[in-house]
Amino acid sequence: MNRAGLSRRRFVGAFAGTAAGMSLPACDGGSPPSDAPTPLAPATMTGPDAPSATPSGPRPLYLGTYTSADGGGEGIGTAMYDPVTGRISGGEVIGGVGDPSFLAVHPDGRTLYAVNEREDGAVTAVRLSDREVLGSSPTGGSSPCHLSVHPGGRFLLSADYGSGTVAVHRIEASGALEERTDLVTHSEPAPGPGQQGPHAHQFVTAPDGGHVLAVDLGTDTVYTYRLDEEAGTLTEVSRATARAGAGPRHLTFHPGGRYAYLANELDDTVTVCAYEPTSGRLTIGDPQPTGSDPEAGTNYPAQLVVTGDGRYAYLANRGHDSLARYAVEDDGARLRLLGTVPVGGDFPRHVALSPDGGLLFTANQRSGDVSVFRVDADSGELRPVGEPFASPVAVCALPL
């Protein structure tokens, strides 16, 4: 497979056979009722701000997929999960959204955003109260694979993998998207070993709120920008270069705001990064193990999440099909690998903590399902909850 081409993004085709024919089962109680509690807005880059009381009653779970893949879904999947038992019950599909491979929610919990990971990239807004699609707006690039909402709620940030670009869209008061306010191409440095060009993989806001960071797998670089919150434009202020061929994919901040953790997809490592809030400067540390077994085959780290209290971090390993558990030490400056647990599915593409931090969800792309784990608040240990929930070509699971 051409790792540098767009096919790298999907890893489906022959591997999607196990997901073919799957669909979201009928919900025990139908779609979430109109009087369901307003979704909680999860933290942008870690788990909840701090452990909180477990909410009562079922909560919404939104599921990303590839609608153009064999065995893929028909739009954004919806489900409900029990925050006490972890049980997921299926729901309906929000149609009219093509290839929604990554999802994010507005801080006010009223609007859901999805990328449309296609050659002509776009982002789509969905009003959650009635699930009406509010419209889409072009990103100006190709194959957007990540998006996030700036904490102020006025701008949507997105990353185009295919074109190596990052885009900013203004958000209306209704949650709908206005025209793009900026588009930046990662034209330098030169692509890393085996890469044909830049591949922006993530675009997020730092905890200080004043800087936004773009992770680019193709150039082995993390770019820091300052976002003009009036004009919606970007100004580059710093860049941090990973070691050649690392293939940085996903950056997750520690709640303290002075450290972040980088999952490197191509060299199967993670790194601790120091972050300076005043300047936005990121300093990438030495590579560390992911807990995978090199003799068992190639592993592609996907994403890290950090618990709201900052004590533990979890890494999704695609290939090894595991979750690595780390103790976070020295106020965030150090990760210590504690071990791994099987994910219970094939190719965990995305991992997310529930807002109360009590559950961890993994979207398993090749097996077409979502696994749920209970998180022990004291030890950080993960315990599987029931059987994985079938969801076609599951590439994102967003619990609210």
From TrEMBL:
GO terms for cellular component: cytosol. PANTHER family: 6-PHOSPHOGLUCONOLACTONASE, 6-PHOSPHOGLUCONOLACTONASE-RELATED. Residues 26-58 are annotated as: Disordered. This is Lactonase family protein. It holds the Pfam family Lactonase. GO terms for molecular function: 6-phosphogluconolactonase activity. It comes from Actinospica acidiphila. Belongs to the cycloisomerase 2 family. InterPro entries: Cycloisomerase_2, Haem_d1_sf, Lactonase_7-beta_prop, TAT_signal, WD40/YVTN_repeat-like_dom_sf.
